[in-house]
Amino acid sequence: MPAESSGASYAAAGVDIEAGDRAVELMKEWVRKTQRPETVGGLGGFAGLFDASALKRYERPLLASATDGVGTKVDLARKMGVYDTIGHDLVGMVVDDLVVCGAEPLFMTDYICVGKVFPERVAAIVKGIAEGCVLAGCALVGGETAEHPGLLGEDDFDVAGAGTGVVEADRLLGADRIRTGDVVIAMESSGLHSNGYSLVRHVVFDRLGWSLDREVEEFGRTLGAELLEPTKIYSLDCLALTRTAEVHAFSHITGGGLANNLARVVPDHLHATVDRSTWAPGAVFDLIGSAGQVERTELEKTLNMGVGMIAVVPEESVDTALTTLADRGVDAWVAGGIVDRQSTMSTGAALTGDYAS
């Protein structure tokens, strides 16, 4: 009988291939739930396949691509041991960037990096991603799980994803469509979404010294539950809006805040104004601002302040747009408008007034 080898091995270096295989088996059922008719093959190949013949119905299809991560929100998921919601955040960050130009999200791939593969944990992360893809109407066609022992702690992980969508060239949304007199419609966020968590963590942990299991009366739940609230996914709502009303542009409110992200879709000769008095940000925004003594300008350029997506529509489409969103369960309201730059002597977008109480 040969003596047991004492040489180096992948397993001795900390990489467990069998655990990785087990994780793939556990996640397969969730990935299957995301499949669209155009999906070819199943999980396990070297590349995900999507039947591009579906694009023949387009006159001039433009492919849109986006990639993103979730940032330091993953640290909260790790600390709470809750792994099946962070995938919603990942999908939302990617697909809602795609839909800004009017593109229908078609498929996504993910990348999960861990210090040690715990199959059930990885499968839970993928479950969340798959559920997010179902909410976005796109397929999860593949991904990668990488084990990085020695670089990450056993419980550490990070996630990233990339998505592809398609839009008819003559239906491309953006700055070129926006006109003076257009109306800015705001769509409520589900909370902090996935931006600004370095500031949030600094305030609640370093300045306040709170624990994640602390019950917070203003939230009606624990601090951890509030901070881990998944990002709202707007893609199907936005696509429905383009079918029922004329839409000139969308703006996904992520890092940089409302004014900076709205400015990205406003042409140089126009200016967008948003009236703060049209809504009241949720309690979590007030907590971070007051407890952290964060100046309003800093708060507004870091957090979404209760608005996750903006639609810019002509005035005659406002009623139809609000009705469509209400029918889909999206809380939305008229928040501002588009004016000529000469009347303001400024560019981009600005917030005016004080928040409603």
From TrEMBL:
Domain PurM-like N-terminal per the UniProt entry, residue ranges: 59-167
Single biological process term from Gene Ontology: 'de novo' IMP biosynthetic process
Name of the top EC class for this enzyme: ligase
Catalytic function, reaction form: 2-formamido-N(1)-(5-O-phospho-beta-D-ribosyl)acetamidine + ATP = 5-amino-1-(5-phospho-beta-D-ribosyl)imidazole + ADP + phosphate + H(+)
Pathway per the UniProt entry: Purine metabolism; IMP biosynthesis via de novo pathway; 5-amino-1-(5-phospho-D-ribosyl)imidazole from N(2)-formyl-N(1)-(5-phospho-D-ribosyl)glycinamide: step 2/2
HAMAP family the UniProt entry points to: AIRS
Family note: Belongs to the AIR synthase family.
UniProt name for this protein: Phosphoribosylformylglycinamidine cyclo-ligase
Organism, as annotated: Streptomyces niveus (Streptomyces spheroides)
